[in-house]
Amino acid sequence: MSPSPAPTGATARTGDGLPAEVTRALVSLWTEYAGTPPSNARTKVRGNVVTCQLIDAVGDFNQSMIAPQAHDTVRGIGKLSPASYKRDAVTAVARLTRQRVASLVSSHDRDTDVATEVFTLEPSLSRGAPRADRR
Predict the structure, then answer these.
(1) Mapping DSSP to helix (H, G, I), strand (E, B) and coil, where does residue 35 land?
(2) What pLDDT does 33 receive?
(3) Which of 7, 44, 129, 131 is at 20 to 30 A from 70, Cα to Cα?
(4) Domain residue extents for the chain
(5) Is the pTM higher than 0.85?
(6) What residues pair up with 42 in beta bridges, in sequence order?
(7) Helices (H), the chain
(8) CA–CA distances in Å: residue 100 to residues 93, 113, 117, 119, 135
(9) What gap in Å lies between CA 34 and CA 113, rounded to an integer?
């Protein structure tokens, strides 16, 4: 059995298009926060739902969040935190999809070492159901 591909190989394998762009952005962001990249990652876009899985990632992220950080922090400004990760992830997905993110459900399973990020986008005319208040 061959070892898992490196994140760059994993994101390159997903091809072009929105899923690959989201995967690359979230792997880059995760690496910034965790200190090391996940061993693999994949993204699916179905209607107004974007789901990204980051494999072999949770342990490093958790360790990074509890370790002292070298950033110049004044009352927490500039400190990497789970809240700032979520904010940055939402910003990245909104930028790439060109849609507002209505919600983010972030599940980090320590047992499987898999992080699953599920973004729900606001409905638009080009993707998913149109808004109900249109007349």
Answers:
(1) coil
(2) 85
(3) 7
(4) 7-121
(5) no
(6) 53
(7) 7-13, 18-34, 58-66, 82-97
(8) 8, 29, 16, 10, 22
(9) 13
CATH second-level architecture of 7-121?
2-Layer Sandwich (3.30)
How high is the pLDDT of residue 10? 41
Which residue positions in the chain have pLDDT lower than 50? 1-14, 72-77, 130-131, 134-135
Residue 125: phi and psi, rounded to 5, are -70, -25
Greatest CA separation for the chain: 57
Burial environment of residue 18 by CB neighbours within 10 A (0 to 12, 13 to 18, 19 or more): middle
Residue 7, token pair as written in the block: 């994140």
Of the candidates 106, 108, 115, 92, the residue with the CA atom closest to the CA atom of residue 25:
92
Cα separation, 85 vs 80, in Å, equals 7
pLDDT score, position 18: 95
